[in-house]
């Protein structure tokens, strides 16, 4: 992200947070006071962007700015994701401690594979930061498991956006997806990063609804060859534990 975008992002979040605490809304001058002396032209552009995104609206009578329903729904969704990450975190930590490898929990956010929780031994593989996303649904081990449990229309949309794995046809990829659904796990030894393998299992709630995916990422080596099966069993146990923790 360009450095110049960060002040605007911070100010925007500050505005949304302040509006959430003021049911009657805030006027332009109130908003300007939240923004560290930024010039009116800068505040106008920021307010305009929030209006364009339908995150705020302006009352026609009072001219005060207020949160929209979309902003409130987004807040609920973010709070839900945060709560879910904390509920499943013990399962992620225990998976890493039992295997000595890096463990993580991802969810599908409609367009990408979102990292909610991770636990990394110091010398093991290191994930991106929590809250970041990966959109390579046909290459990333966690994303491939999440994709396998999506409706056909969503799978088709994701396929149209992602490149197939090397040397794989659509038919071969569809067969792999069906195998994931049957096995309830995926051992992926040719992942999106060179030399990195992943073992992932879906976390399924009541009625088989997908809650996310939990698994391991590791640097491949001969010392692990005899342990893939045991590691896969441990991941499946962690998936069941995560499902129990995820459902309040």
> What structural category do the secondary elements indicate?
alpha+beta
Radius of gyration over C-alpha positions, nearest whole angstrom: 22 Å
**With helices defined by DSSP (H or I, 4 residues minimum), what is the helix count?**
8
How is the largest sheet built, in terms of strand order? 5-4-3-8-7-6
Proportion of residues in extended strands: 15-25%
| Major β-sheet profile | 6 strands, antiparallel
Poorly predicted regions: 1-5
Helix content: 40-55%
Average predicted local confidence, pLDDT: 86
Total strand segments? 8
User: Which word captures the global form?
Assistant: elongated
The first-to-last residue Cα distance is: 36 Å
Write the H/E string, N to C. Answer: HHHEEHEEEHHHEEEH
Q: What can you see in these coordinates?
A:
This protein is of the alpha+beta class and 248 residues long. 47% of the residues lie in helices and 18% in strands. The protein has helices at residues 5-20, 28-33, 40-52, 69-99, 141-148, 152-161, 170-183, 228-246; strands at 56-58, 65-67, 102-108, 113-119, 133-134, 186-188, 196-204, 210-219. The strands form two sheets. A six-stranded antiparallel sheet has the order 5-4-3-8-7-6, with helices on both faces. β1 and β2 form a beta hairpin. α4 (69-99) runs antiparallel to α8 and α5 crosses α7 (170-183). The longest helix has 31 residues, at 69-99. The radius of gyration is 22 Å and the shape is elongated. The chain starts with a helix and ends with a helix. Mean pLDDT is 86; it is low at 1-5.
